[in-house]
Amino acid sequence: MVNNKKNTALHDAMFPGNMEVVKILTREDPDYPYSANDYGKTPLYMAAESESSDMVLTLLENCTSLSHEGPNGKTALHAAVMYFDFKGDHHAMRQLFGRKKSLLKVTDQYGWTPIHYAAYHGKYWINDLLEIDQTATNIADKDRKMTALHLAAGRGHARTVETILSLAPECFELVDNRRWNFLHYAVASFQLQDLKPLLRN
After folding, report:
1. pTM, full prediction
2. Contacts of 31 (CB under 8 A, 6+ apart)
3. CA 103 to chain centre
4. Which PANTHER family match (predicted)?
5. All structural domains of the chain
6. C-alpha distances in angstroms, 151 versus 67, 84, 142?
7. Residues 118-128 pLDDT 10s
8. How crowded is residue 187: how many other Cβ atoms within 10 Å of its Cβ?
9. What confidence tens digit (pLDDT) does each residue in 126-151 have?
């Protein structure tokens, strides 16, 4: 049953995070797919967006046919990377990444994968994503043909750049639509002490 905004009871329970209702609904009908509402959001997307590790874990553990869609081509994995630091709860993070491996290469309307967002925001746990599929670092966005490595370098995220290069070293040669590789961005954005190790290697 949905309302006029295509929200199910589970959608409505996401905010303000009524965990007891979420547990009851998902246990009573674990096979219900819970499709997107009028805002393009599924309950799993909303749980990740709301930064609730408990809700993410409950949905993953109790639901067998869990949809993952979000607005503008995004998925629950995009939302997790954008909004969710998991507050040190790596179990919730790894459960989501592990159960939704196929989403790692899904691009949104800008051509950004979850890896792009992790690199842009300098997420320290980007290695958890890359360990699932290193080839996702080769995907370039729609407009500027930038990879995750370009974005991390352009934002000055030295640790993220080092992580990407250590797990997917072949992507260092990729160039954007200006023919810039990641070093062009690093030279423009990094502090000298962060740039020296890259130039030596």
Report:
1. 0.86
2. 63, 64, 65
3. 9
4. NO MECHANORECEPTOR POTENTIAL C, ISOFORM D-RELATED, PROTEIN ACCELERATED CELL DEATH 6-LIKE
5. 1-106 (1.25.40.20), 107-201 (1.25.40.20)
6. 29, 19, 13
7. 999 998 778 87
8. 13
9. 887 888 888 999 999 999 999 999 99
